[in-house]
What does this fold into?
Amino acid sequence: MNIKSFYFFWFSILMSLTLQAQSTEKSQNQPVHDTTFVNLTEYSSAFILDLRYATENNFLKAKVYDCASCYLRFKTVKKLIEAQDLLKEKGYKIKLFDCYRPLDVQKKMWQIVPNPIYVADPAKGSIHNRGGAVDITLVDVNGQELDMGTEFDYFGSEASHDYLKLKPEVLKNREMLRNVMVQVGFKMFQSEWWHYNLPVEPGFSVANFKWDCKD
Ligand SMILES: [Zn+2]
It folds into this structure.
């Protein structure tokens, strides 16, 4: 090897190491895509989690999630944080009852309540299965839930936005939640005051993964 090729040899090695280092850094700093599933609590600690399907306190009377984590598409998380910021100004917080829901859990729900007014048919898949929906309520500064007229997952007409034979305070609470969620881009679901979802977009496909409970 002459002196020229010797230098070229070491120059090539140095360049390839530099390029390798750059590509590693790039992958670490890569922006999260809107359709990536993420854990809400890694992006904000402003929410209260009461994930009912990780307990037996739900209409299934069964604990169907191994642990209480709120996974959603990144876009859903961003919109939810926008809503939380607006509600914070008014002195309220969002409490979450359900987030992403694996398709297998949707099938169990459908077996118990095969009524599309309340539970999405697993053949089509729910927006919860796509990571674009949340079931929520509001709490005040003391952590007390606001009166929304019915419990979460109450399968009756009183849970509907159309049902107006409720106390003025209840109607006002539902309206406050609805206005903020709609303002940031969520859609309401007529028969359930607690359900809000983003419009389904390409990439929001039905999923059935179970999240990791190690953390
Ligand atoms: Zn829902």
Summary: Residues 98, 128, 133, 135, 195 surround zinc ion (CB under 6 Å). Helices lie at 3-28, 74-90, 103-112, 168-184. Residues 1-30 form one domain. The radius of gyration is 23 Å.
